[in-house]
Design goal:
Keywords: ATP-binding, Coenzyme A biosynthesis, Cytoplasm, Kinase, Nucleotide-binding, Transferase. Its EC number is 2.7.1.24. Catalyzes the phosphorylation of the 3'-hydroxyl group of dephosphocoenzyme A to form coenzyme A. This is Dephospho-CoA kinase. The chain is of the alpha/beta class. It has two domains: about 120 residues, Rossmann fold (3-Layer(aba) Sandwich), CATH 3.40.50.300; about 70 residues, no CATH class. It contains nine helices and five strands. Strands 2-3-1-4-5 form a five-stranded parallel beta sheet, sandwiched between helices. The longest helix is centred in the middle third of the chain and has 24 residues.
Length: about 200
């Protein structure tokens, strides 16, 4: 089991997946909260059954999987539904994250979560690493990646913690506004530091 956990976060489009790959190339394992969030609502899970009971079968796709777009639309405009869904999913996601982290074996591990700070997941990590971009570039990259409108991306950004607050909560910051090579250089430096930190843990 890995004893030293680095929490990774950043706004939409900042490059968390690319950052995770840079660490993976160095042999560091990660748990991705976005993937776990999808796993806890797979067909046959208690969470999906509860969602179906609450919102009806039209919240499912024909193959029995959750229609995430329909659910997002439903809860975005109904605060009571959103609160109900969060109460159901957050504990389930948290439990699954911790179980998966406990199975990792690299010298230290990453917990990657867009809402690391908002959902209090930073209480489970030793350090917080923020990947950062100037907001105009963040907007541009997220729109291109998700093929989404500026309005949609701005709404997601508004729902996340502000860039200023995120940076204030960071122990370490990686700047992703130039090249992959520049990102890899920053990661290599942090990797050495994290290995030292992990070596100091009993």
């Amino acid at each position: 089991m890995t004893n030293y956990i680095v929490g990774v976060t950043g706004g939409i489009g900042c490059g968390k997946t690319t950052l995770m790959q840079c660490f993976a190339d160095l042999g560091i394992q990660a748990v991705d909260a976005d993937i776990v969030a999808r796993q806890v609502v797979m067909p046959g899970t208690p969470c999906l059954q509860a969602i179906q009971q609450q919102f009806g079968s039209d919240i499912l796709l024909q193959n029995g999987e959750l229609d995430r777009a329909a659910l997002r639309q439903r809860v975005f405009s109904h605060s009571a539904d959103k609160a109900w869904l969060e109460q159901l999913l957050h504990p389930a996601i948290r439990q699954a994250l911790l179980q998966q982290l406990a199975q990792l074996t690299s010298p230290y591990a990453l917990l990657v979560a867009p809402l690391l700070l908002e959902n209090g997941l930073n209480t489970y990590v030793n350090r917080v690493l923020v990947i950062d971009l100037p907001e105009p570039l963040q907007l541009q990259r997220a729109m291109a990646r998700d093929n989404a409108s500026e309005q949609q991306i701005r709404a997601i950004m508004a729902a996340q913690i502000s860039r200023q607050d995120r940076l204030a909560a960071a122990d370490d910051i990686v700047h992703n506004d130039t090249s992959i090579a520049a990102l890899q250089t920053q990661v290599a430096r942090l990797h050495t530091f994290y290995l030292q930190q992990a070596g100091l843990t009993p």
